[in-house]
Amino acid sequence: MYVEFNNQIIESNVVKGIIDKSTEFKVVKDMSKGTKRDDVLAFNLSIKINHLNDLLKNKCNLDDLTEDELFEKYLLLSEEIAREIKEYVPEGAVLDIKAYKWNKSDNCIKLIIIIATENTTELKLKDTMRKLITQIE
């Protein structure tokens, strides 16, 4: 799928490759077509728990946390790290990121990231995210 960002045509496969090669995230699925929008790229991502644990070790004692507290920390940290993807997307793009699941069998956190043109309103981003979360579940 192609999206125009500031008079530059961007292919979703190119962004997918950049995310896979330049970040700790792996693209599980390109969800861009599922948005039914021509101004949005969307991806289902995963990040390994081991990487999150390495980052959290300096901030807290993981053994002292309940499973619910650990889950909350994983979600917040993975969303925070995903914001760094902004440096790899076209200038002026806006991001919406939502971590939604701890996949214990794959030992990772799953997220959805939406990369939209700067004209996309926050309401449209939230609506698109809601649709994608529904599709993925």
Can you characterise this structure?
Strands 3-4-6-5 form a 4-stranded antiparallel β-sheet, sandwiched between helices. With 137 residues, the protein is of the alpha+beta class. Helix 2 (49-56) packs across helix 3 (67-82). It has helices at residues 12-22, 49-56, 67-82, 122-136, and strands at residues 2-5, 8-11, 26-30, 40-48, 94-103, 108-116. The chain starts with a strand and ends with a helix. 36% of the residues lie in helices and 30% in strands.
Short précis:
The chain has 137 residues and is α+β, with helices and mostly antiparallel strands. The protein has helices spanning 12-22, 49-56, 67-82, 122-136, and strands at 2-5, 8-11, 26-30, 40-48, 94-103, 108-116. The protein has a four-stranded antiparallel β-sheet with strand order 3-4-6-5, with helices on both faces.
Low-confidence stretches: none
Distance between the termini: 23 Å
Helix content: 25-40%
Number of helices: 4
Element pattern in H and E: EEHEEHHEEH
Mean pLDDT: 91
Total number of beta strands: 6
Structural class: alpha+beta
Biggest sheet descriptor: 4 strands, antiparallel
Bin the strand percentage. 25-35%
Give the CA-based shape.
Answer: elongated
Give the oligomer, counting copies of the same chain as homo and different chains as hetero. Answer: single chain
